[in-house]
Amino acid sequence: MIYIVKRIDEDLDFGCEERAEGAPVMAVVTLMNSSGEELRVKSEDAMLYERNINEGDKVCFDEKNKLEKIQERTELDGFIEDSSH
User: Fold this and answer.
1) Nearest-CA neighbor of 67 among 37, 31, 35?
2) Residue 47 neighbours by CB distance under 10 Å
3) Which of 27, 28, 39, 57 is in the most buried spot, having the most CB atoms within 10 Å?
4) Which residues contact 65 (CB under 8 A, 6 or more apart)?
5) Cβ distance 33 to 26 under 8 Å?
6) What is the β-pairing status of strands 67-69 and 58-61?
7) What sign does the dihedral 75-79-51-42 (CA atoms) show?
8) What is the 3-state secondary structure (H, E, C) of 33-52?
9) Residue 7: predicted pLDDT
10) Cα(3)–Cα(74) distance, rounded to whole angstroms?
């Protein structure tokens, strides 16, 4: 299923204590499906940066159940410039 990233917020809910030492910084990602239903998931903040996932992007879950950005195809995808002419 494809989702749109509506919001990305820092996860500040550590319960009664602070974030455990060495624990990754987490984000709460609000997703919306094509029916308009919202889903909130926690994801490692560093992974969101590595995968260049931002608000407004289309995403899905990969085989490890982690968010993966869906690359939009453009008319120029696959176009190879021929410089021999």
Assistant:
1) 31
2) 15
3) 27
4) none
5) no
6) antiparallel
7) positive
8) CCCCCEEEEEEEHHHHHHCC
9) 97
10) 19
The answer on pLDDT for 53 being more than 50 is: yes
Whether the CA torsion 66, 6, 37, 45 is positive or negative: it is positive
Cα dist. 49→27, 53, 67 in Å? 11, 6, 11
| Residue 7, both tokens | 């919001």
Query: Which tens digit of pLDDT belongs to each residue from 8-49?
Result: 999 877 666 676 677 888 999 999 999 999 999 999 999 999
CA distance 75 to 38: 31
Residue type for position 34: S
Supply 10's token pair: 């820092």
